């Protein structure tokens, strides 16, 4: 049976047997937090358990590397929607050790695209239209620096809700241990103290 067929067969049983009932909640996060994290499969269940999050506690935004790469990209838009429309009041960027984005080589990824049938003409057309594919596919050398950079982009965004703590953490994908890179409360306290 194909994967989609397996999913749909399971779903029919899931709905018929009302297995959804324990997961019912509202669209507003109970802990008033939005989490930006990596799409790594090891974090699917580990991250919520390590952070003591249950269904309905937080908005979770996942992408490759937990990277906020553009201040007006979809990740930042999602953060702002969570803050302005869904009552989130804190942001937490959670990277992880051993992230694939720490070792990605844009040239190799482009070579794989070519091997799969993406033409040089397509790549050239994108480059000529201002899309710098090597930069777009670039990962990071340091997960700590990447988390700090994403936190900075969020915190300094011109549309950011004032006074919102933006934290930066790194999770160990083996044990779930969290390491603080940026304590958003301390940043707000220092900023407030500097304004007095």
What does this structure look like?
This protein has 196 residues and is an alpha/beta fold. The protein has two domains: 127 residues, Beta-carbonic Anhydrase, Chain A; 34 residues, no CATH class. Helix content is 42%, strand content 15%. The chain has a five-stranded mixed beta sheet, sandwiched between helices.
In short:
With 196 residues, the protein is an alpha/beta fold. Helices cover 42% and strands 15% of the residues.
Looking at this protein, list some descriptive labels.
196 residues, alpha/beta, Beta-carbonic Anhydrase, Chain A, 2 domains, 5 strands, globular, EC 4.2.1.1
Do you know the CATH topology of the largest domain? Beta-carbonic Anhydrase, Chain A
Major β-sheet strand ordering: 2-1-3-4-5
Q: Any idea how many domains?
A: 2
Compute the number of strand runs.
5
Helix-strand blueprint:
Elements: H1 3-16, E1 33-38, H2 43-50, E2 58-63, H3 74-85, E3 90-96, H4 106-115, H5 120-128, H6 133-137, H7 143-155, E4 166-171, E5 178-182, H8 184-195
Parallel strand pairs: 1-2, 1-3, 3-4
Antiparallel strand pairs: 4-5
